[in-house]
Amino acid sequence: MAWDATDARRYEQWFETAEGCFAFAQEVRLIESMMSSWPRRGQRLLDIGCGPGIFANVLHRDGFDVSAVDNSPVMLEAARARLGGAVDLHLADAAHLPFDDKQFDYAVLLSVLEFCDDPDAVVREAARVSRKGLLIGFLNRYSFYYYSAGRVRPGKPPGRLASARWFSPWEMRALARPILGSPDLAMRSVLAGPPGTWRFKFPFSQINGLVFYPPLGAYCALRADFFRERPLTPLAAFSTEPSPG
What we know:
Layout: H1 5-14, H2 18-34, E1 44-48, H3 54-61, E2 65-70, H4 73-83, E3 88-91, E4 104-110, H5 119-129, E5 130-139, H6 144-150, H7 160-163, H8 169-180, E6 184-190, H9 204-209, E7 219-225
Parallel strand pairs: 1-2, 1-4, 2-3, 4-5
Antiparallel strand pairs: 5-7, 6-7
Helix pairs in contact: 5-8
């Protein structure tokens, strides 16, 4: 699905609205919570389908060595304006990434699969290039947000969200598990209420900012850990002298 300059502008402008600003803050809360067990320093992370670089900027700020790809020159231009040289940017198709196997430690797909012709191929590529883990952020079809933004309205041309493929948590798990094998999978969500309640005001901020298990949240994240790094514990030295013989 091609994105033009108008799409990029609308995307960025939505995050500047009160509703979009609140939603972004909660999505970042969710993503950072899901990645809290991942080490940061010296860890290479690929942001696949980075758009204008809004989340790539967060990931770089959080300490990852970030590279990012998008298939839209317009989106990459916006990302370059936002990120400067902080993130290594590439023009590429998410289903055919120009990277070696396990070239990155981690990869993220944040609100990307909804707009892909072949989500399975995109997840497969993300898993191929990442060595330690993968995070998928997606719009939940079983949420209040879907009923306000995800459905085609009679007599009204569908917008980007109404044309997108929204996933249920069960559909996303069913899509990911066969491709990823049997890694550790975890899933959480935010934004439980309808968009009219997405406000920095009590009690809405507490309800919508709660990170909880799906199915109700508008934005969900699935984390796959391909293996867990265990901290090394030095063995106790029982003698300062070398053993005889």
